[in-house]
Design a protein that fits this description.
Helix content is 29%, strand content 33%. It is an alpha+beta fold. It has one domain: Alpha-Beta Plaits, CATH 3.30.70. Strands 4-1-3-2-5 form a five-stranded mixed beta sheet, with helices on both faces. It has a two-stranded antiparallel sheet with strand order 6-7. It comes from Pseudonocardia nematodicida. This is BLUF domain-containing protein.
Length: 147
C-alpha cells in the first residue's frame, strides 16, 4: 500500500483584479466553489480579503493542495500570486472550515472585531490561539492592519 501524502500548509497572497462593481458577486462565487470543491478534496483553510489583496491558507494532502494551488494561480481574478509559505504540518489550524472567510466588511466565519480601524480576532477561548497567530501572519503579509 503506498504512503499517503503528508499534510502541508500553503499560504499565498495576490492582488485582486476584480472590478469594484463585480466584487460582491465574484466573491460569492469564489466562496461557493471553494467550499464545495475543498470539502470534496479534503482541503481546509481561510481566505482573507481586503479591497486590493487576497491572502489564502490551504491545508491538506500535499499533492491535492499543490494541484489546487496551480488552478488557483491561473485564475484571472487575481495577479501577482506569491507563495508566502509552503510547509509540512502536524495539525491543521483551520480544520473546521473548507474555506473560512475573513474580511474587513460583512460577516465572517471567524469572529473579528474592529479596533481603531484594524481587524483583529474577537475574544475566543484559548483553543483558537493557533488560528489567531495564523490570521495575524496572513494579515501581516499584506499590511492589512494598515490598509
Amino acid at each position: 500500500m503506498p504512503d499517503t501524502d503528508r499534510t502541508i500548509r500553503l499560504i499565498y497572497r495576490s492582488h485582486s483584479t476584480i472590478p469594484d462593481d463585480q466584487r460582491d458577486r465574484a466573491l460569492a462565487d469564489i466562496f461557493a466553489v471553494a467550499r464545495s470543491h475543498n470539502a470534496d478534496l479534503g482541503v481546509t483553510g481561510a481566505l482573507l480579503i481586503t479591497d486590493n489583496w487576497f491572502v489564502q491558507t490551504l491545508e491538506g494532502e500535499e499533492s491535492v493542495v499543490t494541484g489546487l494551488f496551480e488552478k488557483i494561480r491561473a485564475d484571472g481574478r487575481h495577479s501577482g500570486v506569491t507563495v508566502v509559505e509552503s510547509t509540512p504540518v502536524d495539525d491543521r489550524v483551520f480544520g473546521r472550515w473548507a474555506m473560512a472567510k475573513v474580511s474587513r466588511v460583512g460577516h465572517s466565519d471567524i469572529p473579528l472585531h474592529d479596533v481603531d480601524g484594524h481587524i483583529a480576532p474577537a475574544e475566543r477561548d484559548a483553543t483558537d490561539r493557533a488560528q489567531d497567530a495564523l490570521l495575524t501572519r496572513m494579515r501581516n503579509t499584506i499590511g492589512a492592519d494598515t490598509v
